[in-house]
From TrEMBL, chain A:
Protein name from the UniProt record: NADH-quinone oxidoreductase subunit L
Basic and acidic residues: compositionally biased ranges: 87-100
Cellular location(s): Endomembrane system; Membrane
Domain annotation NADH-Ubiquinone oxidoreductase (complex I) chain 5 N-terminal: ranges: 171-212
Gene Ontology cellular-component terms listed: endomembrane system; membrane
Topology in the lipid bilayer: Multi-pass membrane protein
Chain segments annotated as transmembrane: 6-25, 119-143, 179-197, 209-229, 235-253, 282-304, 316-335, 356-374, 386-408, 415-435, 447-468, 488-508, 528-546, 579-601, 621-641, 727-749
Assigned keywords, A-Z: Membrane, Transmembrane, Transmembrane helix
Organism whose genome encodes this protein: Thermogemmatispora aurantia
Spans annotated as Disordered: 78-102
Chief location of this protein within or outside the cell: membrane
Automatic annotation (TrEMBL), chain B:
Lineage: Bacteria, Bacillati, Chloroflexota, Ktedonobacteria, Thermogemmatisporales
Entry keyword set: Membrane, Transmembrane, Transmembrane helix
Stated family: Belongs to the complex I subunit 4 family.
Protein's name according to its UniProt entry: NADH-quinone oxidoreductase subunit M
GO cellular component, one term: membrane
Transmembrane segments: 6-24, 31-53, 100-120, 132-155, 188-208, 279-302, 308-330, 337-360, 380-400, 420-442, 454-475, 496-519
Annotated source species: Thermogemmatispora aurantia
């Protein structure tokens, strides 16, 4: 009966299949088809041939470079001591060996195997995407002959870790319902577009095949979260997306930090992202542990049900513990969705390739926290009001906190990163204030629309960076070196403008519906403080988005009063990106406009929820207050960056002590990164050094001390070694006698 | 006839292989070693398959007298028997494998074979191979012995080859005024002997107190020492339950081997000074001897003693887990880091056992389930830690063979030149930090989630190791593999085919256990049910 739905596991299997095929098949072939030396000498010879930088380096220091020379070289090498965890390590920028090797290795052309890797990923993802859209239409009742999904959803497949009854909770189970399907559509669609786009963006990277493997792995992990039927599986997916994020942030493995731009090395950023997520995950698993110890199950449906294993019965009379558990579970979301105070990894994550930022660090993975709260909405509802209170307030604080930082950032991608953090905060506000009658719809709706326009913003930014890289032959992300790009790349600029308007809540674009609904919900439910925060944040959002737009694409003196084009502050001549990159932009622009018109979204997720009431939305004065604030933000950005020009604004800010103070504070992201850096370096590593010293000098010291004592005694006893057999035999039989006595004593004890 | 039993051949094949490798010409000896280690592996797999097929994947428990004879493999022959006044001494040649020991036997066979491949180009290769195989035989005996005195014998047999392997092929770096290999070999030997003395005393205590005139484990498990009636310890004058006393004596040996804080300091030294393959065996199987003994003997023979000790054990487990992880974070040597990570990961086993110990006499079926899951997690951790840490040590060995250093800070961006090795090293690191889909996650997730029911506060504290583990492993990987490339290493060739074989094999097993742990859990669980007897009855089995 649900035949069509029951094959939904194919959506999950498709990206896994492409990962396996690429890693063990086409990527191997890709590497194989390039030369690989077997010995050091072969390899050096090959490098001399293939890599001018190596030859040059070898010439400067004499042939070879073998073990004997290394220690000498090491002595003159980097300052080792300063190395530390996390971001922007000094150790990295003090090392100056190997300058020609800074960037990702590029190839003049892609091997057929590399291209094939891309095609495998894209074709399988296209299948997953089409299939998920088909299921979405079916579940909306638009497909004749196929029923809608039942309210509780269907189980796709499951197996337990062990057949014993004690292991029944440890079940790997996948489950499909409307919530999962809505998220699946987002994930597969954005994944497909990003993979398609990457064909152009990554065209000259030596790691092309590897990139597509990682993207496929990510899609698989993300869909694991989406289809998860219990806390075990969602935790598995949770960690696996962390892995793909780690691999993709650190994709350019050898790139160094750029301290002048406060940009960490990708490897450091990846490490930071994983470890910070793990901090949240400890909370997550503690919450899971409390739920499991009390109810004996991980299963979402059982937990939410009224049975003896449901939270309602199991936690009866102990709601405070359930509240604590749910707040701990939410800690996982704080980490994954980069909410305050675990937000610092997301701006660093921008060191990954831009398509990755679009897919993982904007549209899908970071929204996993929102999805998880939506998935466990019933459990949050069963907990005390403090649980949702924490969700809403963390979201609200993050929204305005990140928005203020976004006001001053000059790095194109970093503005978008803070915008993502801020918008994720909105989603949590939506989940936290909605209450049971609306359900997770409000937060999920913003997730749904945001995925499209934020992916568009990032891919557009990627298009700009790609063009500037070709124009200036170096990596440029600073908006102060852009300007007037709308003239050179009109498609990118136009689609970016649509996305910018959409995120600012411009009327009748998708962001308008999801965001204004959210803000008015906060008001209706009496959370006036949160309402005020979200309203102000809306204005700030519009300002910084258009600040970015005018700095990059417009400028004083451009067409339409500086909106379209203007003076270009960089070098060379940028060109519009190839069609592989612009086509996804256009498709996403369509979604950014129309995604908000799915008025039945709340009901789709929760049949008891009301329809999105457009009439009420349009007639409500508060809606238009929000719109007015957004327009004010856009207008103010126009005044500052088109009419006045950023140089003069900058001078004014620098001249005024108060403005300068706030500018510094925001530019350095409230110095939270600095604080964390300090804590890691001096507190955490300090404690670890204490532990290591204790181990070495106390625990092992006692052992060595005892050993030393025995040696001293031994050298005294050496005199007993007379060499006389009689003496030895005496001791020998004496020992046996003592042993016999011991045995005798023990034997009589019984 | 003793040679008619396949368990005898599990002991004899590596012994014979060792002797042959020693006497054969060098050309032949490594192939002989490979052949005999492969034969041992094949035989252990054959036993596994035979039981699986004969019983439809229902493995039994050797300590359960009612177990289906087809579901286990046992050999019991009289060996030493004499009368001394009123005292009868009796040691049986009593070996057996079941769901608990068979995976460890297979693990030992597998790792030894991979170690033979890994050590292919060692200097003095004949002796090296011979000692590796003799070591294998000794460890096999420990995992199979069902007579406590025979167990003790094998426990000591394993020491000699290990002592020589570290002492001859170890590193020359000076430690406390002598070459590191000498210092560490002695440290290893003396530490283990120190524990062994207590174990022997404990075994003798059980032997004479139980009055069964046998040290057979299954028999003694039917005649447990009294838990409540006290024994006054000579010299100390302390009165305690004789089960607790015997437990403490035997446990000292296992605690050294596991190793448990504060008896762990031999491990980092032994690992840093041992050659790669020896580290692999040391971490992969020798540490498991302690954990195996803890589960098989302490839980089987002294359930009440263990339960009385559990509150202290859980504290030591948490110290092991967090303290080991914290020390890892500031290590400068890759191998030392992996060694301390073993301390941390073995703590998880202690935590699981401590939780299971509290579930022994429970009448609450829920608690029984949690106890079973915790003990299962601890057992799986034995296997997964064996696989993962071996992989890590093999990986470190690959770079050490080329660069002759393991200092983390010297490297940088090496992944550029060694992509295959870097991939596998990263994989090993991720497995060790408990990434889902890989073996470590199954064990740790089971232990943490189920121990929480029994020991909420200690488990909640121990979980913070997730952060530290991720930090020290990924930080190490970052400094060695990623980041700006250090041109000093431009000449490094990638891992060769021979080096890649152990790495890929272990990686495959790690994925298998991680994705479908059922095949392992179903093997082990009957043996555990026999160890948690009340849990079984509570389930109505």
């Amino acid at each position: 009966m649900y035949g069509l739905y029951e094959y939904a596991w194919l959506i999950l299997a498709a990206p896994l299949a492409s990962f396996v095929v690429i890693v063990f098949g086409t990527r191997m072939a890709d590497l194989w088809s390039r030369h690989h030396g077997q010995t050091a000498q072969d390899y050096a010879a090959y490098l001399r041939e293939a890599d001018p930088a190596f030859a040059a380096w070898e010439a400067t220091r004499g042939a070879g470079g073998h073990a004997e020379q290394q220690h000498a070289a090491h002595a003159a090498g980097p300052a080792e001591g300063a190395a530390h965890l996390g971001h922007g390590g000094e150790a990295e920028h003090q090392e100056h060996h190997g300058d020609p090797y800074d960037d990702d290795p590029t190839v003049p052309y892609l091997t057929p195997w590399a291209r094939l890797s891309g095609y495998v990923g894209i074709v399988l993802m296209l299948f997953a995407c089409l299939y998920s859209w088909l299921l979405l239409f079916a579940s909306l009742g638009l497909l004749p002959g196929t029923p809608r999904l039942p309210e509780g959803g269907i189980t796709l497949f499951s197996y337990t870790w062990g057949s014993d009854v004690a292991f029944q909770p440890y079940t790997i189970a996948f489950h499909l319902d409307n919530l999962a399907l809505a998220m699946t559509v987002v994930v597969t669609t954005v994944s497909l577009l990003v993979q398609f786009y990457s064909q152009g963006y990554m065209a000259s990277s030596a790691g092309y095949a590897r990139f597509f493997a990682y993207l496929s792995l990510f899609a698989f992990s993300m869909l694991t979260i989406v289809f998860a039927a219990n806390f075990l599986v969602i935790f598995v997916g949770w960690e696996l997306v962390g892995l793909s994020s780690y691999l993709l942030i650190g994709f350019w493995i050898n790139k160094r930090a750029k301290p002048a731009e406060e940009r960490p090395a990708p490897a450091s950023a990846a490490l930071q992202a994983f470890v910070m997520n793990r901090i949240g995950d400890v909370g997550f698993i503690l919450g899971i542990m409390i739920l499991f110890a009390t109810t004996g199950t991980f299963d979402f449906a059982t937990l939410a049900g009224n049975g003896p294993h449901g939270v309602a019965q199991a936690f009866a009379g102990n709601q405070a513990l359930l509240t604590l558990a749910m707040i701990l579970v939410f800690c996982g979301a704080i980490g994954k969705s980069a909410q305050v105070p675990l937000h610092t990894w997301l701006p660093s994550a921008m060191e990954g390739p831009t398509p990755v930022s679009a897919l993982i660090h904007a549209a899908t993975m970071v929204a996993a926290g929102v999805y998880m709260v939506a998935r466990t909405f019933a459990l949050f509802s069963a907990a005390g009001p403090q649980a949702f209170g924490v969700v809403a307030w963390i979201g609200g604080i993050t929204a305005i906190f990140a928005a203020t930082i976004g006001l001053t950032q000059t790095d194109f991608k970093r503005v978008l990163a803070f915008s993502t953090i801020s918008q994720l905060g909105y989603m949590f506000v939506g989940l936290g204030v909605a209450g049971t009658e609306i359900g997770p719809g409000a937060g999920m709706f913003h997730l749904f629309t945001h995925a499209f326009f934020k992916a568009l913003l990032f891919l557009g930014a990627g298009s700009v960076l790609h063009a500037l890289h070709h124009a200036m032959h170096r990596e440029v992300q600073d908006m102060r070196l852009m300007g007037g790009l709308a003239r050179f790349m009109p498609i990118t600029a136009a689609t970016w403008l649509i996305a910018g308007l959409s995120i600012s809540g411009f009327p009748f674009l998708s962001g308008f519906y999801s965001k204004e609904t959210l803000i008015s919900l906060a008001f209706e439910h009496g959370d006036y403080a949160l309402w005020a925060i979200t309203l102000v944040t809306a204005g700030l959002t519009a300002f910084y988005m258009f600040r970015a737009f005018f700095l990059a694409f417009g400028g004083k003196g451009g067409a339409l009063g500086g909106i379209w084009g203007g003076p270009y502050r960089g070098e060379g001549t940028p060109h519009e990106s190839p069609v592989t990159m612009t086509l996804p932009l256009v498709i996403l622009a369509v979604f950014s406009i129309f995604a908000g018109y799915w008025v039945g979204f709340f009901q789709y997720l929760d049949p008891h929820a009301p329809l999105l009431d457009l009439g009420k939305l349009f007639s409500d004065g508060l809606t238009w207050l929000g719109v007015a604030l957004s327009l004010l933000g856009i207008a103010w950005a126009y005044v500052l960056y088109c009419a006045v020009g950023w140089e003069r604004v900058h001078k004014v800010v620098e001249a005024n002590a108060v403005l300068r103070f706030f500018h510094r504070l925001l530019l350095h992201r409230y110095y939270v990164d600095t604080l964390y850096d300090w804590i890691v370096r001096y507190v955490v590593l300090g404690l670890c050094h204490v532990a290591a010293a204790f181990d070495r000098f106390v625990v092992d010291g006692i052992v060595n001390g005892v050993a030393g004592l025995v040696m001293e005694l031994g050298s005294g006893l050496r005199r007993a070694e007379t060499g006389k057999v009689q003496a030895y035999m005496t001791v020998f039989f004496g020992g046996i006698a003592v042993f016999a006595v011991v045995v005798f004593v023990l034997a009589t004890l019984r | 006839m003793i040679f008619a039993y396949d368990l005898t051949w599990i002991l004899l094949l590596p012994t014979l292989g060792g002797v042959l490798a020693m006497v054969a010409p060098v050309r032949l000896s490594r192939w002989l070693a490979l052949a005999f280690s492969a034969a041992t592996l094949a035989l252990s797999l054959w036993i596994f398959l035979r039981i699986a097929v004969a019983t439809g994947y229902h493995f039994g428990s050797v300590t359960d007298p009612k177990a289906d004879p087809a579901s286990i493999d046992v050999v019991q022959l009289p060996w030493i028997q004499f009368q001394l006044g009123s005292v009868t001494f009796r040691i049986d040649y009593y070996l057996g494998v079941d769901g608990l020991s068979l995976p460890l036997v297979i693990l030992n066979a597998l790792l030894t074979m991979l170690a033979v491949i890994g050590g292919w180009e060692k200097p003095r290769v004949k002796e090296y191979m011979a000692l590796l195989l003799l070591l294998e035989a000794g460890v096999m005996g420990v995992f199979m012995a069902l007579d406590l005195l025979l167990f003790f014998l094998f426990w000591e047999v394993e020491l000699a080859p290990m002592f020589l392997l570290i002492g001859i092929w170890g590193s020359e770096t000076l430690k406390h005024g002598m070459p590191g290999r000498i210092y560490s070999a002695w440290k290893f030997l003396l530490y283990t002997f120190f524990g062994s003395i207590f174990m022997l005393a404990g075994i003798l205590l059980v032997y004479f107190q139980a009055g069964q005139n046998t040290a057979s484990l299954p028999v003694l498990m039917q005649h447990l020492l009294p838990a409540s009636t006290g024994v006054t310890v000579p010299l100390l004058g302390v009165t305690m339950g004789s089960q607790l006393l015997a437990f403490l004596l035997v446990f000292v040996a296992f605690a050294v081997k596991i190793p448990m804080f504060p008896l762990h300091t031999w491990l980092p030294d032994a690992h840093t000074d041992a050659p790669t393959e020896v580290s692999v065996i040391l971490a992969g199987v020798l540490l498991k001897m302690g954990a195996y003994g803890l589960i098989r003997i302490c839980l089987g023979l002294f359930p009440d003693g263990l339960q009385q000790f559990a509150p202290l054990l859980v504290v030591l487990a948490v110290i092991n887990i967090l303290y080991g992880a914290a020390i890892c974070l500031v290590q400068k040597d890759m191998k030392r880091l992996v060694a301390y990570s073993s301390v941390s990961h073995m703590g998880v086993i202690l935590l699981g056992v401590a939780a299971a110990a509290m579930a022994i006499h429970t009448s609450n079926p829920d608690v029984a389930h949690f106890g079973t899951a915790a003990l299962m997690g601890a057992t799986v951790q034995m296997i997964s830690h064996g696989l993962i840490t071996s992989l890590l040590f093999f990986c470190v060995g690959v770079i050490y063979d080329r660069a002759h250093t393991r200092e983390i800070e010297i490297f940088g961006g090496v992944a550029k030149r060694m992509p295959l090795w870097a991939t596998l090293f990263t994989f090993a690191g991720l497995a060790s930090l408990g990434l889902p889909g890989l073996a470590g996650f199954v064990a740790e997730y089971m232990v943490f989630t189920s121990s929480y029911r029994i020991w909420p506060v200690p488990t909640a504290i121990a979980v913070f190791t997730m952060i530290l583990t991720a930090a020290y492993l990924l930080w190490m990987l970052k400094r060695v593999l990623f980041g700006p490339f250090n041109l000093r290493w431009n000449w490094l060739p990638d891992a060769s085919w021979r080096e890649a074989i152990p790495l890929v094999t272990l990686a495959a097993f790690i994925v298998l256990v991680g994705v479908y742990p059922g095949f392992l859990l179903d093997v082990i669980v009957p043996a555990l049910h026999h160890l948690l007897p009340v849990a079984t009855t509570a389930l109505g089995r």
